[in-house]
Amino acid sequence: MTTPGLRLGAPGVLHDGGRPPLALRPVRLDIAGFVGVAPRGPVDTPVAVERWSDHQRRFGGYEGPGLLPYAVRAFFAQGGARAYVLRVAPLPRWPHPEAVAAHALHEITLARPDPYRPGAGLPCVLGLRAADEGGWGGLLGVRWEFTADSRFTAESGRAAAELALPESQAPPPGTLLRVHGPGLPAPGGFFRVTGLAERQETPSLRRRVAELDRPLGASGPPGAALAVDVVTATVTVTDADPRLPREERFTGLGLDRAHPRWAGAVLAAESLLVTPDGEWPEALLPSGPLLAAAVSEPARPGRDRYAGIGADSFFDGRIPAGLLPVGGGEGTGDLDPADLAGMDRMALVPEVALLCVPDLLWHHVDGSTPRPAEPPPHHGPVFAPCPPPAPAPAAVPPRERAGLLDSGTQLPEITARQLRLVELAERQRRFTALLDVPPWLTVRAIARWRAAFDSSYAAAHHPWLGVPDPEDPGRRTRLVPPSGFAAGIIADRERRLGLAHGPANALAAEAVTAAGRWSAADHDELHLMGVDAFRAERDGFRLISARTLSHDPDYGQLSVRRLMTMLRIVLDRQAQPLAFEPHSPQLRAELRRAVTELLRGLHRSGAFAGDSEDEAFFVHCDERLNPAWSRDLGRLVAEVGVAPAHPLEHLVLRISQDADGTVTVG
């Protein structure tokens, strides 16, 4: 069957340039973004992770003082499937000398071509900088090996600086060759390929030749057989982190900038551990004919700059109001996203729908608290088993301390930071900011804190939950912001049941304690404030509500806010193909049909109230909404109305007893 309107000519494959019918599909809102303090990883660069081990490999584990790893671990423990993580750092940032000095530097000695002695090499020192700042870079090691493989037989060309190649060989420009033959030094001389050419040897024979950087100098007539090795580099980068050793291995690296796999370019683009530092020479050579390997030496230790992290590490205020696009994306006008920091940079990731900043209350504390010495055991006159010996200290560096802003004396500063996060969510209108109620506040103090917020793009969770600290030999608990648990519960509920199902009535996996004790009356008051609380129960801590911080009753439920956000994103992004289409009744009908199909599917999944589609939603796109004067302005207007289903929060049971003693529950 041919497409109507497609005129077919001569037989062949023809392209039908018609636009496919518009089809709208729901988008995922279960992807979370985490911004915080990490011991390693790229700074101010969102990195996608899909499991806890991904976070460990890129950003480290619990060895740093931040709460970021605990929050990310909690997210995946609840069932979250994908997140973006961004590491913050103090001012000044790269390329300020202070930031540069925080990167560990290693040096390795190789050779470069001697301009005065063709084929000979001069020692040169290459710099290899840790890819990210921090003390972790001091554990790096680099081993550089040269490999001579792909041996083949070639012939000396008619020109002095040419090598006639067999048909199966075509080394790209920049390839380093070791050539063996009469008149050449043993075990061979080094030559670089500067280009490939075709030579007409005879009227019936055409040969490919490699143009070399200098004459071969081999004795014998043109066409003498020569043995050729292709010399490449293999670079192995090791990270001797005792908690999680890492290793990268890069093979087949070229030794000239003209090579398609130039070693410097490959390390800069593919290595997560090191990057070239300083100016590398145009070409490299082995240090000798025997292709000896080289090992790096530390030249500068890395440095952790935890003490300098402050509020300006999480946001720098360089995004003017209204500059970011409503529908999300990377576009920011004249502002380069790479120049933004912290939350402002994470806000530009279109996939992020839940934003958590577990270290927003960060306050660095100098020094460390030594563990009190245990008293010596008292041996009495009665024989008893000796106590087990104390465990040996782990072979890891000591952890630096960090504290939180004091909820009592510094509550205005805490509130100001969180308001900045809510302001960002309001401006983007694409994600929900998950706030952590400051710990150790009374219910009355929480009410004063809550009064500062009125936004459906924010939700608050309480109290902070304790998890066993994997880095503590005694397995003492570490208090973790509840937003990480809530983000994982929200993501898991959406993936399993759909967006319309609220995240309440779920247990916080791995939580064993909480900050403070809260009575049933306290939970009643928190619920009336719109604060989503984890309540202690026999089997753990259960999230008992899913509300926003909005005073508007229509947007009091988090599931309603997220459903409306999803609809707006879908219409904003997926209706773009209709731009510049002729405004016709057919176009309006197509838009009305696509939106209706989208809403019909959501209604069947239980997202809307109402027994019928007429009660659940409506879509209007007709002449009344699009008069001639509006069409002349290039506008297409559609009205969409929905009735979101609100979660059931209370069950009211009536118990009565009849005269004969029968108990009825209605």
TrEMBL record:
Annotated region (Disordered), positions in chain: 368-403
Classification via InterPro entries: Tail_sheath_C, Tail_sheath_structural
Residue ranges with Pro residues bias: 372-396
Official protein name in the record: Tail protein
UniProt domain Tail sheath protein C-terminal: residue ranges: 551-656
Family the UniProt entry places it in: Belongs to the myoviridae tail sheath protein family.
Signal peptide start and end residues: none
